[in-house]
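ok here's Sphingolipid delta-4 desaturase:
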Amino acid sequence: MKEQDFTWSEEKEPHFQRRKMIMEEYPEVKKLFGSDPSLAIKTLLVSFLQLAIPIFFLPENPWLFGLLVLLVGTTLTHIIVLAVHEITHDLAFKKKSHNNWLAIVVNFPLVVPFAMAFKAYHAKHHWHQGKEGVDTDLAVSWEAKFFRGPIGKFIWLIIQIPIYAVRPLFVHPMVPDKWQILNAIVQVSAMVGFYFLAGWSGLLYLALSTVLATGLHPISGHFVAEHFIYKEGQETYSYYGWWNKLIWNVGYHNEHHDFPTIPGSKLPKLRKIAGKHYDNLYAHKSYSKVIWQFLFDNKISLFSRVKRNK
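and the structure:
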C-alpha cells in the first residue's frame, strides 16, 4: 500500500457479486427482506431514556455529571446513532415516510438534525462504495495527510463526528430535500422544548454525550472496523462480538452491505444460511483492539481505504 495514497481498485465494489451469488444459491434469503416492527419500539425507548436522564436524574455534582456522560450518555448516543442508521434503511416500517418520521423523532437526543442528511449520503455510500467524489464516508487526501501518527489519529477519532458532518459539503454537496428541512425544523423545536424541561445543564448533557461518544469509547471502534483495511484484499469487515446485542447487529457489516434491505435482527440468520460466503472472511473480534491497532499500527492510517473512480 502506498504511504501517501489510498488503495485504488478498478473492480466493482465486492457486495454486488456476492449478493448475486447468494441469491442464486440460497433464494430463501428473500424471506428475510422487509421491516422489523419491534425496531420502532426499541429505538424510541432508547431515545426517550436519553432524554429522560437529564430531566429526572441529572446530578449536580460535576464529577458525577461527567461520569454519567462518559459511561451512560455516550453509550446511549452510539446506540441512537446506529438506530438512526437502521431506520434510514427503511427497516422499521413498510412505508418510507413512516421510517423518516421515526428517524426524525429518534434524532432528538443528538441535538443537531442528523437523520435525513445521513440517509441521503449513506445511500451513496452503499451503492457507490469507495467512489471518489461520491462516497463521503472516506477521508479526503488532506485529511489523511494531516491526521497522521498516534496523536493525529487520536484527535481524528475524537472529532470525527463534526468531520463526518462537514466533509460532504466539500466532497459531494447536495441540495437539502424537504425531509432534511423538516428534520432541521423539528429538531430545533424539540431542543427549545427540551430546554424548558431540562435547562442548559440538560442540553449540555446531550451535547457532551454526542461529542464524546467517539474517541476511545469501545463502540466507536465500529467507525474504523467496517471499511479500514486490516487485511489486504478485503474491503469490508464484520464483527460478531457481544456489542451487537446493543447496536442492532451493525457489526454484521459484510452481511449488511450485501443485503441492506434485511433488518439487523435477521442478519445472524443470513450468516447462518450463507455461512460459506462469510466464514472465510477476516472478522474483527474486539472493537477496543481495532482502536488500539488503528492508533499504533503504522501500516493503518486514514489512507487505509479502498477507492475507485467508477
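+1. The beta strands are 7-8, 238-239, 283-284, 306-307.
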